[in-house]
Every structure is written in structure tokens, then in C-alpha cells.
Amino acid sequence: MRALYSLIWGLSLPFALFRLWWRGRREPGYRQHIAERLGFYPASGSIPTIWVHAVSAGETRAAEPLIRALLATRPQHRLLLTHMTATGRETGGKLFADVGIRLSQAYLPYDINWMIRRFIRHFHPELCILIETEVWPNLIAQCEVHQVPVTLVNARLSEKSLRKALRLSSLILPAAHAIRAVAAQSNPDAQRLQQLGISHAVVTGNMKFDVTPPPLMEEKGIALRQRFGNRQVILCASTRDGEEELILDAFQEQLPLLSEKPLLIITPRHPQRFDQIAALLGSRNLRYVRRSAMEQDATMQLGNEVQILLGDSMGEMYMYYAASDVAFVGGSLVPLGGHNLIEACAMGKPVLTGLHTFNFSEITDQAIAAEAALRVDGARSMLQEALALLADAPQRQHMGRQAHGFFLQHQGATARTMQILDGFLKQNPR
Question: Of residues 59, 64, 126, 343, which has the active-site annotation?
């Protein structure tokens, strides 16, 4: 089965390269470092290397506390951080700009044996740490051949992903069995991983709880809020394709009925959709301003005539939360599985989420049980709940306090994960 998988990958390679070029029209990062995706890298020294693979921006942010812990406790090691997406690489560059030469970044090659083999022989990693959900059959097989232990940390596995993996069991199960250690986010994740034959999964919690909100982002959020006047603010964070239309339908339906007009902030999850959402707002004759325009004009104020701020920036999500009164977390109005609520809770904001949260089911249920979050059954009820919270300051403040307490209560996953990883790095003690 893996031989067939490798053949399909080889035949698909021209299409994969064309897709890079095509995506590069909107995200130039995809047209950079192409050779790395084929297993070719600049010369590097023979420093002991710990390899962390974080596919995109979300996984990269989740890995931050672990990477900083590894850098602090393993001074003789270099950290190699690999990605698959341009946004992941950009996010890593910003997060670790202060680290210097002890951390390097690269794209992981496509999952083709000879490319992965070149990668491993070039960097000679002592340990491979996969973040969240990445199980690549050839990558894991080549790590076995080259005696590189593979670990999966901050691991999560939804029911949907489990069903897909079981359909490809002859391909996925051998790779899953070869993973030496697994640190799962939750009990349901561990139970689903066990169905893949990973009996040694340990529940360590979600490392995203250990990410410290940057003080600078909170300061930027307060400064941004001052440019809105006295208006209240509803944030729709990490929205996905199809959600903005639903949200705007509800917003335009409610807006004429409101004496006090709140400002709506929409931050699409993916940067390639920024222009698309701007066009959508224009087609509906909504008065909006782009965050990028405010960045260019430091004196710009948003008067009451501006209905929507389009958050067309990356790496500023904490700022948007700091500037808002109520936050809806997207990916949950449509069946995409939702996004995590942790950043909103870290900033002490009441959280709203839709019905479709299967990617983060346990954490979402726990936040609702803790009175930090509310589940809504659609865009209209989301907006109605948001408006109700804006009108009820005591309840809004109560949910905000509960949210921040929920965030603090669940910290510690990084330390527990480090205890597991230490067993694979004993040859280089602290």
C-alpha cells in the first residue's frame, strides 16, 4: 500500500508544483524556497538538531511554548522548525525572531521517499516532533530507517479524521504504530488514537494554554480600540468560507433595529481570502475599513458611519481580542470543525461558538460548562447573543472572568510534554 501511495505521490508531483505556483499569485511565499520542498537545502553545520514539524500557522503558534522550553533546556541543540504552508513559515519567523541562529526554518519535502531521505541525511535530526495531527507514512518510515525517534505532541484526532484514517488503515496504521510517543490533548483524542493502535498515548493537555499573550498585542488592542470612539465591538474571529455571508445577513437584518450601532470586526482565517471578503462587503454596500489602511494612516479614526473593520492582517489575533467586547470563533457555523477558543479565553473575552466544533469538542464543551462560552445554532442567534451580552455588562464581565480562569486552569501541558521528550534526549542531558 505504501508503494502505491509513493507512486501516486510521484505522479502527482508536477501538479503539486503547479499548485504552489498558482497559490503564489496571492501568497508569494509559496513561490519561494521551492528546492526545499524537493529535499534540497543550503549547507548547514553538524550541530545536534531537534526537529519540530508544524504544518501551518496554528500548529506553529501551538508549538511556541514547547520550542522555547527546548531552547532553554537544551542549549547544545539547534531547533529545526519545518512547515508546509507559507503562513506557517511567516508565523514562525515572527514568533522566533528573537532566537537567532539557534532556530532555523525550512519547508518539509513532499512525502516521497527519496526527498525525505535527503532531508534526514542533510539535517541528521536526533528527534522528530510532529505537532497535532501530522502522520506522513514515508516520513515516518524513513525516520525508522535512519533511527530517528518520532513523537506526536499536542495530538488531536477528530471522529472524522479517525474514520478517514481507518479507511486507509493499511497505509496509516503502520505509520501510527511506528510513532514512539504520543502526547494527546484530551481523553477523547487519546481514545481515538488508541483505535489506530497507539496504546501508549498520554493525555498531557493542550499546549496552546501555555502560550503567553504578548503584552505588545494587548497594548496595540487598547490603542486600536481608542480609534473606534465609544462604540461596542463584536469580533468574528477566524471565519471560514461561507460564514461571512451568514454573519452579514444577520448583521444587516439587525442593524436597522439598533439604536446603538456596534462595530463588527471580521478576521478571515486565511489571508488569501482578504480581498474576497473586501469585495463581498463592497457588493453589499457596507461601509468598511481594512485594518491595513489603519496601519498606513496612524491618525485614522473609525466614526459611527463605519460598520465593519476587516481584519486583513496576520499575527494580530490577540490585538483583535483585546479590542473587542464579545468574540465569536469561526469555522463553527459551517461543518468545518471549528477553531480553538483558547486565545479568546486568554484575553478574558466572552466566547460564542457554533454547532460544528468536532475538531475541538472536549475543550469547547469544557469552556461552555465553565460558563466561559455559549453555543449558538446559527449566525442569527450568534448575533442576538452577542447583542444581549453587550447590553448586559454584569453577565459579560462574568463570562470574561470565567474565560480567563478557564485559560489559567488548563496550563501545564508543555511541562508534561517535556517530561516525555526528555526520555529521547537523555544522551544530551541538560
Answer: 59
